[in-house]
Design a protein that fits this description.
Layout lengths: L5 E7 L32 E6 L13 E3 L19 E6 L2 E8 L25 E5 L5 E5 L30 E8 L5 E4 L6 H8 L17 E6 L5 E6 L14 H5 L7 E7 L5 H15 L8 E6 L6 H14 L5 E3 L8 H28 L12 H17 L8
Parallel strand pairs: 1-3, 2-4, 9-11, 9-12, 12-13, 13-14
Antiparallel strand pairs: 1-8, 2-7, 5-6, 5-8, 10-11
Protein name: GTPase Obg
Organism: Leptolyngbya foveolarum
Family: Belongs to the TRAFAC class OBG-HflX-like GTPase superfamily. OBG GTPase family.
Length: about 400
């Protein structure tokens, strides 16, 4: 399946049904009066998060979506049928950005200005919603209201109104969909560090693997089972290069997918010319990109130790320990599985600590008392960031993390 993580589409709510002009005509009722019903409401366009989807491939060729129109009002004051809503399924982790409503006559986006007061949405390009949970919904193009039938225009001065109201058009909006993978652990490293081999070793994922850089061109997801049997999603992020934070080597496209991770597993190619320089390159790119990636809890592992002598591995580990604050450097081989059990025990422990910190932050937020003079509750993103910082600070302290 081809991996598509960005798409732009146009959505349109259904038009409301026209109101009806009609008069009551019954035997023995010579002046029955107006009886035209109101038109039905137009259908709305709604996005729904689906955990079975992993790509925006469905939107590669389909760019325009419209909900059904409402039915026309009927005689005897009957309201027209409501138009059927259009449900569009997207992967969990999809962000929805507003690119502006559209002028029906010209097909051009309508600027959001004071002259357009009915537009209550944020400025173009602003975030409309973040669909992270299965079944979560977001209405992005409401349907138009049904037009009033002529019975609504009955008055003391007009006992037989002969006009009704047309239905209102549905909202038309251009939106941008952007997928950020929902993985708790991100596997990062330079090209050819063995990330795809590692995720295939740890999970049942079968990514493309070859002995040359840039084999992986799209993120791969794999579910790794804890000793308890629970599954955790790992993401194999395509190899980053120097300048990735500036977009080089599709850097922005790749770095975006680790923004939601709770911890990073940094693989270093032990057979590289200078593994320490490789480590520093990735750290610099994470720091330059921002989004707190450089402060994300991280485990460091030398990969491909089966191709090295023991003294060579010792020397690389010692050099890496000098530049990463003396943290433990794991020694693994994704091919032979050597050292992976110890590494994964550390992953589960750090992940549990991070989840506990996040839960504690959320509980503290729920217990906070807010009044008009205190700031609003922090966003879930702020909570995650603070929890990750707290976990990383504890792990980096000399007491909880002696140098190995």
């Amino acid at each position: 399946m081809q991996f598509i993580d960005q798409a732009e589409i146009e959505v349109e709510g259904g038009s409301g049904g026209d109101g009806l002009t009609a008069f009551r005509r019954e035997k023995f009722v010579p002046a029955g009066g107006p009886s035209g019903g109101t038109g039905g409401k137009g259908g709305s366009v709604t996005l729904v998060a689906d955990s079975n989807l992993q790509t925006l491939l469905d939107f590669r060729y389909a760019h325009r979506f419209k909900a059904k129109d409402g039915g026309k009002g009927g005689p005897s004051n009957r309201t027209g049928a409501n138009g059927e809503d259009l449900i569009i399924e997207v992967p969990c982790g999809t962000l929805v950005y507003d690119l502006g409503t559209v002028d029906e006559a010209t097909g051009q986006p309508i600027p959001k200005t004071a002259s357009n007061p009915d537009d209550s949405t944020d400025s173009p390009g602003s975030l409309l919603g973040d669909l992270t949970e299965p079944g979560q919904q977001l209405v992005i193009a409401p349907g138009g209201k049904g037009g009033l039938g002529n019975r609504h225009y009955l008055s003391n001065r007009n006992r037989a109104p002969e006009h009704s109201q047309p239905g209102a058009p549905g909202a038309i909006r251009n939106i941008r969909l952007e997928l950020k993978l929902l993985a708790e652990v991100g596997i990062i490293g330079l090209p050819n560090a063995g990330k795809s081999t590692m995720i295939s070793t740890l999970s049942s994922a079968k990514p493309k693997i070859a002995d040359y850089p840039f084999t992986t061109l799209v993120p791969n997801l794999g579910v790794v089972r804890k000793p308890t049997g629970d599954g955790t999603v790992f993401a194999d992020i395509p190899g980053l290069i120097e300048g990735a934070h500036q977009g080089q080597g599709l850097g922005h496209d790749f770095l975006r997918h680790i923004e939601r991770t709770k911890l990073l597993l940094h693989l270093i190619d032990g057979t590289a010319i200078d593994p320490v320089v490789d480590y520093q390159t990735i750290q610099q790119e994470l720091s330059a990109y921002g989004h707190d990636l450089s402060g994300r809890p991280q485990l460091l592992a030398i990969n491909k130790i089966d191709a090295l002598l023991e003294e060579e591995v010792d020397e690389i580990a010692a050099r890496l320990a000098k530049v990463n604050g003396g943290e433990k450097v794991f020694r693994v081989s994704a091919v032979s599985r050597q050292g992976t059990e110890e590494m994964m025990r550390a992953v589960w422990q750090l992940l549990d600590e991070t989840n506990a910190a996040i839960a504690a932050q959320e509980e503290a937020q729920q217990q906070a008392v807010i009044d008009f003079n205190t700031p609003a509750l922090r966003s879930s993103g702020q909570i995650l960031g603070e929890a990750l910082e707290e976990t990383e600070a504890k792990r980096m302290s000399p007491i909880s993390n002696p140098s190995v």
